[in-house]
Amino acid sequence: MDEHAIRTMLEGKGGPAGSALRAILYVPGKAYGLAMQARRGAYRRGVLQSRAAGVPVISIGNLTAGGSGKTPMTLLLAKTLADLGKTPGILLRGYRQSETGGSDEATLYTTLAPGIIVAVDPDRCAGAARAVAAGADVLLMDDGFQHLRLRRDLDIVLVDATAPWGGGNTIPGGLLREPKSTLRHAGMVVVTRSNQIPEADLNQLISDIRGVIGTGTPLLQAIHKPSRLYTLAGEHLSLDALRDKPVVVLAGIARPEAFEKTLVELGARIVRTYALPDHRDIPAELLRAALDEAEQAGAVVVTTEKDRAKAVFSVPDARTADKNRWRDTDAGRVWIVGVDQCVDDQASFQKTVAAVV
């Protein structure tokens, strides 16, 4: 069973099989949640010690395992801080680095924000020291809400509107990393993909979050806004080029269904989706299969900027098997959609960030 199917079942879907799996894992999930609460409490009481970086630290995280939009939010923060005259550094754990030893997220950051300081290290404190030594005067800890050993000045927690509570239980009984009540420790909460659910559901979600965090914590809404479309060959296209265009989707991200919805909203006609687990390399043979299927259907292969950063696209002539080699026209038939995170109250967002730097 693939990772996406398991995620679907743990989120509360998947029919009888999903119900059975959640029942089996209910108690371990609750036990894990209690352990995570105890750990956070130990840091708050000083039983476990956090370490200061010497510069302000802003954490961008979430409560659930997987894609809530941390990467585009981190890029938005980096731009906001640069506009404030700061030199931000981004700290990455390097989760599931590729087989070639690279990090798709690190490549994405350095591509979209040239000159940005990026430190990849599972030891966030060590990464922080390297980033500060390189000149960073504020640090952005990507996926940092649960990494308590590095002291932070602001916790920005993202809640994905399309799957906010991970099935209601903590890992392994659901997709929550910590119980929902942990949101009260956030300095700002941002509901992402807020345009992808009905307004009544969004209002209920906002009410649920306010019930946890109270009225003193900023609560913003954000959308993943498609902002650019270009081919692997470097040709820039209008987003309108996707209207009525048949596409084969290739996505190694946590929520390929959200990417599919974005494409449909842009008018694309999805022929097939090839989905891989988040951060995984795309095998050359899978890319070849997607290209061949697209050619037969008169379609193009569409992927994300995060996937574009993976080795299979960066070193196409490194193929060894003849059947997987690139053809002259392949790069023009791979289209990349870039998205930006857009918040509904930029003034409040900037004010909250500026207050800690």
Concise synopsis of the structure shown:
With 357 residues, the protein is of the alpha/beta class. Helices cover 36% and strands 21% of the residues. Strands 1, 2, 3, 4, 5, 6, 7, 8, 9, 10, 11 and 12 form a twelve-stranded mixed sheet that branches.
What does this structure look like?
Strand 6 (188-192), helix 7 and strand 7 (219-231) form a beta-alpha-beta unit. The protein has 357 residues and is α/β, with parallel strands linked by helices. It is globular and about 60 Å long. The model has no long low-confidence stretch (mean pLDDT 91). The chain is 36% helix and 21% strand. The chain contains 12 helices and 12 strands. It has helices spanning 3-10, 15-24, 26-45, 70-83, 104-112, 124-133, 199-213, 256-265, 284-297, 305-308, 311-314, 346-354; strands at residues 57-62, 88-92, 117-120, 138-142, 154-160, 188-192, 219-231, 236-237, 246-251, 269-275, 300-304, 334-343.
Entry keywords:
single chain; 357 residues; alpha/beta; 12-stranded mixed β-sheet; 12 helices; globular
List the helices and strands and how they pair.
Layout: H1 3-10, H2 15-24, H3 26-45, E1 57-62, H4 70-83, E2 88-92, H5 104-112, E3 117-120, H6 124-133, E4 138-142, E5 154-160, E6 188-192, H7 199-213, E7 219-231, E8 236-237, E9 246-251, H8 256-265, E10 269-275, H9 284-297, E11 300-304, H10 305-308, H11 311-314, E12 334-343, H12 346-354
Parallel strand pairs: 1-4, 1-5, 2-3, 2-4, 5-6, 6-7, 9-10, 9-11, 11-12
Antiparallel strand pairs: 7-8, 7-12
